Structure prediction request, 402 residues.
Amino acid sequence: MALIVQKYGGTSVKDAERVMNVARRITDVYKAGNNVVVAVSAQGDTTDDLIAKAKEINPDASKREMDMLLSTGEQISISLLAMAIEKLGCPVVSLTGWQAGVKTDSKYGSARIKTIDTERLMMELDNRRIVIVAGFQGINKYDNITTLGRGGSDTSAVALAAALGADLCEIYTDVDGVYTTDPRICKGAFKLDEISYDEMLELASLGANVLHNRSVEMAKKYNVKMSVRSSLNNNEGTYVKEESQVEKMLVRGVTRDNDCARIALCGVEDAPGKAFQVFEMIAKAGISVDLILQSIGDGKTKDISFTVAEGDLDATLELLEKNKSIIKAREIKSTSDVSKVSIVGAGMVNNSGVAAKMFEALSDAHINIKMIATSEIKISVLVAQKDAEHAVNAIHDKFLSK
Prediction:
């Protein structure tokens, strides 16, 4: 008897028809002799609707009360799904995050799971019940409800699979696997049969929206075998697991991330510790920096360019302007009209010439590169946002055309 953990996103349970579809999928797995635990997101646009309701009452509501409100979305989903499973004649119980033993830290709105007390879960499984758990939520040491932030239900599912020692964690969504790039912008994109944790983590961090990077981090840490597949068909999905022993593809995927902005500090004093001074200031403000480029300098001044999330641009500029006398930059420039385009592949480690091939693709497409960053299994470039889609297609054709 296998233990299967499944996760269904909001689009998978957005209306009564889809709730019944999910219920049938779950009961089919259960009737095949498996134990089943399911993490569920709020239906459709429920979370956005709840946020809108809160803003009508108090635009500055505390994060604690927002978590109390937003957690109700998943409670609606799990109860409706449990009712559907009851209708199909299978034993089932729905549990909120705290009832399922999900313990988190106290960072409201973006809490992290610390432990899962599996006693209640195991009792229900021992009684051969299907267990439906509210994703995206838990409880802190003060017995207050917390939510896990963006991608929280993915993280809930993987955490449950890790805590229970599940044989497989299936992430059901509205796409039928992990593609080499976004098929909506590249006709040549194709689905991968499998991908390594490291590759998936890079893709998730660089703009691929199939899985949240925190869930992949957790899956890698606890060696949870994952499958990404569609809730709308029976197609085989993509397995996310440790690297296979077969020969690796040179490049596994191409991503585009429009959520970025570039800041340039021009004419900064060319002295030891200046970069530390700038980025420590930004880090203390809780702002994450991505690509960084520093000019060689002429012994007197240098330029430092870096990227942040577009939503952090105004706050970063305000911070830098406030401390301009300390930074001693001649000028501070910024633009949000940029995109980050990246390639990812474990096969890049032992192959030279990958960067040159990527740059050739962009050159042939007459696309200018503004910044470059590399690691063992990724290369990222910053390009004008108007060129991003063209860049993805050019790079995909160069590395992954069939």
Q: What stands out?
A: The first helix runs from residue 16 to 31. The mean pLDDT is 93.
